[in-house]
Amino acid sequence: MILPIYLYGQPVLKKVAEPIKKDYPKLEELIANMYETMHNADGVGLAAPQIGLPIRLFVVDGSGFKDEKVKNFKQVFINATLLEESGEEWDFNEGCLSIPKVREDVSRPYNLVIEYQDENFVKKKEKFEGTAARIIQHEYDHIEGILFVEKISPLRKVMIKGKLNDILKGQVEVDFPSRFYTPKKGKR
Predict the structure, then answer these.
(1) Does 188 have pLDDT greater than 60?
(2) Would you say the C-alpha torsion 52, 58, 64, 67 has a positive or negative sign?
(3) Cα-based angle 86, 88, 93 (whole degrees, multiple of 5)
(4) Is residue 183 part of a domain?
């Protein structure tokens, strides 16, 4: 089932997500729905906060990249903890399903070590590099309540402010189900 993707401004995108347990309701179905939602929107990663759930879960699928090292990179990350980032920082033009029509260069370390549980709650500790590390870093930021636009230069932030405001106002077209931020009456 394709789920709506929460867009920039939704409070759930700015919350640090909570760990989950093996008995989380309908987890297998949720993971399948997240992959279907991500693929429908042409994404390479999707974190639970992006579908309105403040839990430490994200899925990745690098098959959309030309990079041979990530073409078969499809994984589920539950209760992930980033242990180490290392190597030279490198820029890459990132986008985000929750921030449509905005792409910016983001600098991130080339390597990472992450501890997580897979979809069967088997604990793992792995090292990733390059594009795979980048995809994980981006999705990991989501479960930490961080959006990629917070990692760009102050000048670039000023330059994209209009686009972000358009998203807040619901004035951006997307070709996937989405949820715009609507402030409660009396709040702004």
Answers:
(1) no
(2) positive
(3) 105
(4) no
Q: Residue 115 catalytic?
A: no
% of the chain with per-residue pLDDT over 90: 90
Per annotation, catalytic residue among 84, 88, 94, 139: 139
The CATH number covering residue 62 comes to 3.90.45.10
Average pLDDT in the 41-64 region?
Answer: 96
Alpha helices in the chain (DSSP H): 27-40, 130-143, 154-168
Amino acid at position 188, single letter: R
The total of structural domains in the chain comes to: 1
**Residue 79 falls inside a structural domain:** yes
Look at residue 48 and tell me if it is in a domain: yes
Maximum pairwise Cα distance, the chain? 51
pLDDT in tens, 74-125: 999 999 999 999 999 999 999 999 999 999 999 999 999 999 999 999 999 9
How many Å apart are CA 47 and CA 34, to the nearest integer? 8
Report if residue 177 sits inside a domain. no
